[in-house]
Amino acid sequence: MPVQEQSQQSKDVKGGTKGEPKPVQRSRDKDQAKKATPAQPASHDMKVRSGIVSAAAQQDAITEVTRSVPAGEPDQLANNDELKFIGKRITRLDGPAKTTGRARYTSDVYLPGMLYGAMITSTMPHARIRSIDVTKAKAYPGVKGVYILQHLSDMAEVKDKSKEMASKYPIVRFAGQPIGGIAATSQAAANEAVKLIKIDYEQLAFVTSVEDARRPDAPLVYPAPAAMAATAGGGGGEEDVPQKGNVRGPARSRRGGPHGDLEKGFSEADAVVEGDYRTQVQTHCSLETHGVVADWKPEMLTVYASTQGTSTVRDEMAEVFGIPKAKVRVITEYMGGGFGAKFGAGNFGVTAAALSKQTGAPVKMMLSRKQEQLSSGNRPDARIHMKIGAKKDGTLTAMQLVSYGTAGVGTGAGTAGPTQNMYKCANVHTEEYDVFTNAGPAAAMRAPGHPQGAFALEQAVDELAEKLGMDPLEFRDKNDEHPARREERRIGAELSGWSQRHKAGADSGPVKRGLGMAQAVWYRIADVGASAEVRIGRDGSVEFMSSVQDIGGGIRTVLAQVVAEELGLQPRDITMKIGDTTYPPGPPSGGSQTTNSITPSARNAAYKAKRMLLEEIAPGLNVSADDLVMSEGKVFAKDNPSVSLSFKQAAARMKTDDVSATAKRGEDYKEAGGGRGRFITYGGVQFAQVAVDTETGVIKVEKVWAVHDCGRPMNPLLLENQINGGVLQGISYALYEDRVIDRNYGYVLNPNLEQYKVIGSRETPEIKVHVVENILGLSSTDAGGIGEPAKIPTAAAVANAVYNATGVRVRQLPMRPATMLAALGKVKGMTA
Amino acid sequence: MNRFDWVNANSVDQALASVTDESSFKAGGVDLLDLMKDGIASPSRLVNIRQISGLDQISEDDKGLRIGPLVTLTQIEEHPAVQKTYAALSEAASRIATPQIRNMATVGGNLVQRPRCWYFRSEDFHCRKKGGTHCFAQDGENDYHAIFDNRVCAIIHPSGIAVPLVAMNGRAEITAKKGKREVALEEFFTSPTHDVHRENILEPGELITAIVVPASEARTAYYKQGEKESFDWPIADVAVSLAMQGSRCSKASIVLGGAAPYPYRAKAAEAKLNNSEITEDSARAAADAAMANATPLEKNAYKIPIFEAIVRRTILRAAGMKAEGVAA
Ligand SMILES: Cc1cc2nc3c(=O)[nH]c(=O)nc-3n(C[C@H](O)[C@H](O)[C@H](O)COP(=O)(O)OP(=O)(O)OC[C@H]3O[C@@H](n4cnc5c(N)ncnc54)[C@H](O)[C@@H]3O)c2cc1C
Hints:
The complex is a heterodimer of chains A (832) and B (328).
Chain A: E1 25-26, H1 30-36, E2 43-52, E3 63-70, H2 95-99, E4 115-121, E5 127-133, H3 135-139, E6 143-148, E7 156-158, E8 178-184, H4 187-195, E9 198-203, H5 210-214, E10 226-228, E11 243-244, E12 247-251, H6 262-268, E13 271-279, E14 282-283, E15 291-297, E16 300-305, H7 310-321, E17 328-331, H8 346-359, E18 363-366, H9 369-375, E19 378-379, E20 382-390, E21 396-405, H10 417-421, E22 428-435, H11 450-467, H12 472-479, H13 483-496, E23 511-519, E24 522-523, E25 526-527, E26 531-537, E27 542-546, H14 555-567, E28 574-578, H15 594-621, E29 628-631, E30 634-637, E31 640-646, H16 647-652, E32 658-664, E33 670-671, E34 681-682, E35 685-693, E36 699-709, H17 716-735, E37 766-772, E38 774-775, H18 794-806, H19 817-823
Parallel strand pairs in A: 1-25, 4-18, 16-17, 21-22, 27-28, 36-37
Antiparallel strand pairs in A: 2-3, 2-38, 3-33, 4-8, 5-9, 6-8, 7-10, 11-12, 12-22, 13-20, 14-19, 15-16, 15-18, 20-21, 23-35, 24-34, 26-27, 26-32, 29-30, 30-31, 35-36
Chain B: E1 5-8, H1 12-18, E2 23-26, H2 30-37, E3 45-48, E4 58-61, E5 64-67, H3 73-78, H4 80-85, H5 87-94, H6 99-104, H7 107-112, H8 162-167, E6 171-176, E7 179-184, H9 185-188, E8 207-214, E9 219-225, E10 236-245, E11 248-257, E12 264-265, H10 267-273, E13 276-277, H11 280-291, H12 303-318
Parallel strand pairs in B: 1-3, 2-3
Antiparallel strand pairs in B: 4-5, 5-8, 6-7, 6-8, 9-10, 10-11, 11-12, 11-13
The structure holds flavin-adenine dinucleotide.
């Protein structure tokens, strides 16, 4: 079986990446979903290879299957070792621009007459605003405009509007909540003017921790049930769940859903383990803060945005201002990181556009680091109760997860993904609760819910295996049917020297070393409407166009590889025009869907354009277009060596100025005969070696072996970048990062990169990446995604390694010295 | 940030003449500008002392070491004589912040920088140190606060180089319009019980014009532990200076950073070592004694085992013995 299959059918949902992983095939919005499905061109059956290239276990190796492929799509690509550019370590096309500073990020955009914006934010964690006095601010030298937001996005709202508290302005629900903005002729003037805004607050009681917010007498964050609008990428949980007080849930309907009989499952178990796990709030810490330059002109609103979704920003701006999408243009040439928090227009973006409209000048609005940390999203915390049981032979019989977490004034704190989707188990029951608190809203963050869920699940699995006297890998082989993960466990074990692993706590000195592992599960997500155009000019130039944005993963380079491979050119020969909604709409970059979504469109468009060119010139060469091949910068006839032209010469023979083709990705290929859409997951297994100083509580990660699959690896160099980044962010999550709120006053105490501690160069371990080539035969490139899987298992692998080192389980993140020492019983009055 | 005047001083006299009650000296500016940007300090005038010549030198003779206040942390870290004879100082400088910051940060500025307590640094809290009436750390998030002398104000003193300098009996030469005075650094830093609004005895308009470290045969070592190694503040740091007679210690000096609102001299620990052999056992006894009177707050008792470990290890290392550990 080449890919993991589960019973759940996919369904289309609105939006880009949500706080929750959503099913497989998706389109950006309803319109597109409609556009993508009807009038499917005729399809034909095609034999494709599917399986793991060079798998050790015969059963997972490549087999031939038949798929139904839309007409006009090219044959399946060969394996990577037979290709020229795809699957090769091509360096970033934009590397020189980035390293020399030529690359223009949103924060580098300066337009003539541009004003500088600053946000007005609340200084109270919970309050009703009685009045806002802007007179002094307006009079401040250089100030050109003041705008007060009447409606806020990216946070939950009371569903029944009549039940919201009466108020002239949006109710303030966290310290740092956007209230409006100021535009001035200099940043300094804008910042100073903000201090002159006088806000009269009626303070309300607030609550900032999950524990306090769950108390029956807790202050209410929302007076009535609330939900978070599913803006693209903006977090958000399930919609129709009950809410009592601040507690929203249980959400149960995750993919797979509850199934079986839990009681029966546990009664069949020979061993059961149960534990409580806690994870902290993590912030995105993108190097480039959120921001836009908005330029409102009567004919067009142009927005330079640091975003993961040019199209999603365009859609939201159009919606907010009630203008046609066609009158909004969003540009993202380069952007400095998003990790899930940058999809929508944002309150800052809306403010900037409104100020631009008001002042008639472009307005730049980049969040300060403090605002970034307070209001632009985070990974919710979690308190997870995990219970699992298995038979003597290792067969899992029951899994139960109950989790409470806070997404602040947002939703999406669920953690059940891994428990629902990693292992085969007949009886699974999960309950997820979102707890509202007066804290900044969560946003999607690199595999929402999964690092949290894996931290609990993968430790529980290790614990259960130990209780049964089984090796953790053997236990997983027994319960995990994912073919890629099976292969990954084998490879990781070999690389890390797993067979030499000692018993837990075996080292004698104060410094103890240990080896641990943990697994990832993530979902194959694609934007079926992702669209791209390839144009070949009579001068031999080739342009690629799509609004898809390169958020740092390197899609600009990968797409050039794909087009070059199809046209037999060099990647540098392709002029890449991306990150601009003037071009065909690309996918939002979230859910690890970019490469999966847009590379098939690119290949299909290049293939179509190639066919158009060949058909134009074939008659003049007295050959059939089918006999012509493009390779190594040449166009030649397969069996007739006398017909051979350079690409340029061939293009010059075209009758028209250019040929151009646009292609949409469309859905994954169906099994021939019309099988159902399949629920496909990616794996990923990481092994970590740690050293623990049991006297000081310091944990150092010394080595990580990260073994992953993501369909066809398109560019191993860029893939390794992504995996390295995931591992580092995972270690940072495991050991260092923690947003701290003062429990008495409701203010975040570390909204900076000094006291909010992010991993640095000295904490960077040796990372060995191994990628399994897993051909799925589901699209014309077989590409998948990697951004998210790479982060999911790291913290859990580190925790399992800490256990192997010390014999002590740390069930709380971050595992800072205080936590480790408490777990070791070395701190008076503290346990962990 | 507020508007301010800028004065470039070319000499100590000019600097002293330019300074008013509302102004601040600016050396590297690393701390001062952060305070201004965060709205914690708003001097109406900055007197830039960075260009004063002659204050950026390290000199060594048989009386000891003389360090100009504009010497950067990088200079301290890299100076061969400091590395050789005053190892703890060089080590301490090398563990501060990042290379970029160490290139800008000066010795004078490092000693006079304000605390990093997140209540003090936040505009949202008007704490006792800023003229308010409450120390928010007492019943708040006090993970990183003091475990000694923490009832009035629970800050820890931020200076990393102060820790070895106090252990080495360093002195500050202070110049004012009315003249010069020299003060032992141990007396230079003060307790909040003395005056909660400041961390040292410096009066407005006074300039540190040198740091003097007496020559000594003592063996020194320093250790800093943060939560991570890359530009993190210490949870706990310690400098140990051991004057040895053969294998016996004749005089020990042990100073803790990250423990109190000032570099904290662990006298009880010193007493355990004076006139005794340095062994695993005596080092342990000293480390335990150092913590005997700690009064941790709700969330920082974890510092006690850390100090016990790093004080013991650093004593052993100062004495030339090995001590295993993982850096952070
Ligand atoms: C990320 C980060 C991490 C850091 N980590 C550490 C650390 O681990 N350990 C550590 O010790 N420090 C650390 N620092 C702080 C840094 O070392 C200090 O900010 C720096 O040393 C200040 O020196 P400066 O010359 O820039 O001082 P300035 O900012 O110029 O001045 C600071 C104060 O000293 C006064 N001043 C300066 N010179 C004199 C003088 N000669 N006489 C009288 N008053 C004077 C100024 O008026 C001002 O009040 C860190 C800083 C950052 C940003």
